[in-house]
Design a protein that fits this description.
This protein has about 325 residues and is an alpha+beta fold. The chain folds into two domains: about 210 residues, CheC-like (Chemotaxis protein chec), CATH 3.40.1550.10; about 60 residues, SpoA-like (Surface presentation of antigens (SPOA), Roll). The protein is about 30% helix and about 25% strand. The chain is built from nine helices and ten strands. Strand 9 and strand 10 form a beta hairpin.
Length: about 325
């Protein structure tokens, strides 16, 4: 118990510290130590953190739209998530890309300048394999793309461009067009090397396989719309002035949704024995009279009556009436 100080010793110690006789001991960082933040005056950040955050929210809408469009096209589950949004020079962006890779240079009218869409070769090979009937598993080393692979990726590029246009509808309506395609990043020079760009990287999961896709915006291209990237306006939806704009965007996306439409010619029931005895030339009678309208089903639900016919060399039906709830 001899290690404890008495009340008199504690009072004396506090008096010595307050009188400056005993210096106060500080930790490694110090009580009043200030943390210095590095800043490069040669390359100032032209886009604020708030604007970067708005761009992140905008591209979250892009990832959702991209998931729907690619899932429908590839006939499999596709997940898209943002992994980084960073501000860097164009030289640094080009140096970060693999060679070869899939590069699309996009015009964004009415904005001046161009945008780069880069798809990692591993992701390209997975998409091509999936569309050609494979599992989507990529087992190839990076190489130059064939003309067939470029043609297949043209449709994928168009879907990604549509998703970008839909996401930017909240800020500005622009029309993206594919100007050129390249596989060597060194051959693509949309701005000078020292110009600042904003690179948005997303990870695309196709089943068990994944790859990276980048969208590069030169800051000079986005300069006219940067004032519109206001966090308060974005959060409270004041950019469009009212809710009708948001409703029209939602309606447009719903109108682009694909649905299944099936026309039933009729049904028949046969025994297993009769089914096994079926041969070429046998006739199966359906329960549908020839002079009666057919039923048109939308997503499995009966919606219309229609009469069969032909348009050119294709079979077709003509809608005659709606199916009422009581029917």
């Amino acid at each position: 118990m001899g290690d404890f100080l008495s009340k008199e010793e504690i009072d004396a110690l506090l008096s010595a510290v307050s009188g400056g006789k005993i210096p106060q001991r500080k930790g490694k960082e110090g009580l009043y130590q200030k943390t210095a933040i590095s800043y490069n005056f040669r390359r100032p950040a032209l886009v604020s953190k708030d604007q970067i955050r708005v761009l992140e929210l905008l591209h979250e809408e892009f990832t959702r739209s991209c998931e729907v469009k690619l899932s429908n096209y590839l006939r499999t589950t596709v997940e898209v998530e943002i992994i980084a949004i960073e501000q860097l020079t164009y030289t640094e962006f080009i140096a970060s890309l693999s060679e070869p890779t899939y590069l699309g240079v996009l015009d964004a009218r009415p904005l001046s300048g161009q945008i780069i869409l880069e798809i990692n070769p591993f992701l390209v090979f997975s998409i091509v394999d999936k569309l050609l009937g494979g599992s989507g598993k990529n087992s190839q080393e990076p190489r130059e793309f064939t003309r067939i692979e470029h043609t297949i990726m043209g449709k994928v590029t168009a879907l990604v461009m549509e998703a970008l246009q839909d996401a930017w509808e909240h800020v500005i309506s622009f029309q993206l067009t594919l100007k050129t395609r390249e596989s060597n990043p060194q051959f693509v020079q949309i701005v000078s090397g020292g110009e600042l760009v904003i690179n948005m990287s997303v990870k695309v999961n196709i089943g068990e396989n994944s790859g990276v896709m980048n969208v590069c915006y030169p800051v000079a291209t986005l300069k006219p719309v940067l004032p519109r990237l206001n966090p308060q306006q974005w959060i409270f939806g004041e950019k469009k002035g009212d809710d009708e704009r948001g409703s029209s965007i939602l309606q447009k996306k719903l109108l682009d949704t694909q649905i299944e439409v099936v026309v039933e010619l009729g049904r028949a029931e046969v025994s297993i024995l009769d089914f096994l005895r079926l041969a070429v030339g046998d006739v199966i009678c359906l329960n549908q009279p020839v002079n009666q309208d057919l039923v048109v089903k939308v997503q499995g639900f009966p919606k219309f009556y229609a009469s069969p016919g032909r348009v050119g060399r294709k079979k077709a039906v003509q809608i005659t009436s709606h199916i009422k709830k009581e029917d």
